Amino acid sequence: MTSDDTGRELEKLRADVAALRDARQADEEKARESTPAAVPAEPPPADSAGQEAAETAALPEEQRTQLEELGDLLQQEIRDLPTITCLAVFSLGILMGRLMR
Q: Are the C-beta atoms of residues 67 and 59 closer than 8 Å to each other?
């Protein structure tokens, strides 16, 4: 393959990427336009995630985004830690809580 062939192939791939990016943006805009402005509230599920979502929904937008950001950061931190370490820290927290009563 010569450098001219490689250059043509690169240009073709760049054009394909640009076309895919444009199509994706068009799909996102179409989805935003078709989404209704006000979605009726559903009753929260009985599990703890549903209760957390209901509590979060009652907060102002700024606090909600801060809580969601904090939750995301905690999830990332926990995913990066080994399981044994997480269990040990959690167990120590429970033990300290019991001893402080």
A: yes
